[in-house]
Write a structure and sequence with these properties.
There is one protein chain. The chain is of the alpha+beta class and 248 residues long. It has helices at residues 2-9, 16-38, 73-80, 86-96, 174-184, 206-247, and strands spanning 51-56, 61-66, 118-126, 132-138, 143-147, 157-164, 192-194. Strands 5-4-3-6-2-1-7 form a seven-stranded mixed sheet, with helices on one face. α1 (2-9) runs parallel beside α4 (86-96). The chain is elongated and about 90 Å long.
Length: 248
């Protein structure tokens, strides 16, 4: 119920979902960096600290991937599964009283803003001391957490995969994503990479064009020669037939 209220409450400011997920990613990176001060080996699984935004137009998914501390199975259940916790209730009550929607992060429920733009959300996560698990939920409210046997292995960290709604595909556009990242993530202390799809157009030079024309001419010439040869063979066969009939 509370998740639905959150989703319905701030439909007018949908882009904050990305700010909230990037903020969570930054927190996870802070935690592993802090832990590595006393336990440097914690970074061995993935030395680089990063946030990657990956739009996939072929599957209508937007993935936010960080190499932070990651979440165990217990973390996924406790952090993402407790939908009707007090913070959610406080947020809904605060909004009803006229609070600013963009304050959602202060109530610890910013992650659920993902359902503003997605029908389904997957969270694939790997902590150093645990197996890789995947948390999955639809906007309906139920969720599952299972050991991940199907997705690509993550050395350490979390991938949030948003299966976008049909009317929210603008969040796959490079310009739109760049604008949101610039607007909401200027104080993030880690590099944010936006992976973009590029289509290559090969220019055909005149020489290449001429070569292709020559090749085509050669092929046509060979075809003509082949036809002439076949025609000649047919004529020879007919002459032989005539000779044989005359002899008989």
């Amino acid at each position: 119920v509370y998740k639905r209220q959150i989703i319905n409450t701030f439909y007018s400011n949908k882009e904050i979902f990305l700010r909230e997920i990037i903020s969570n990613a930054s927190d996870a990176l802070d935690k592993i960096r802090y832990k590595s001060i006393t336990h440097p080996e914690e970074l061995e699984s993935e030395p680089k600290l990063f946030i990657k935004i990956i739009p996939d137009k072929s599957n209508n998914t937007l993935t936010i991937w960080d190499s932070g501390i990651g979440m165990s199975k217990t973390d996924l259940v406790n952090n993402l599964g407790t939908i009707a916790r007090s913070g959610t209730k406080q947020f809904v009550e605060a909004i009803a009283a006229g609070a600013d929607i963009s304050m959602i992060g202060q109530f610890g429920v910013g992650f659920y803003s993902a359902f503003l733009v997605a029908d389904k959300v997957q969270v694939i996560s790997k902590r150093n001391e645990d197996d890789q698990y995947v948390w999955e939920s639809t906007a309906g409210g139920t969720f599952s957490v299972v050991k991940d046997e199907t997705n690509e292995r993550i050395p350490r960290g979390t991938k949030v995969v948003l299966y976008l709604k049909e009317d929210q595909l603008e969040f796959l556009e490079e310009r739109k994503l760049k604008d949101i990242i610039k607007k909401h993530s200027e104080f993030i202390g880690f590099p944010i990479e936006l992976l973009v799809e590029k289509t290559e157009e090969k220019e055909v030079t005149e020489s290449e064009d001429e070569t292709k024309k020559e090749e085509k001419k050669d092929e046509e010439k060979k075809d003509e020669e082949k036809k002439d040869e076949e025609k000649k063979n047919d004529e020879d066969a007919k002459i032989e037939d005539v000779k044989l009939s005359l002899i008989h």
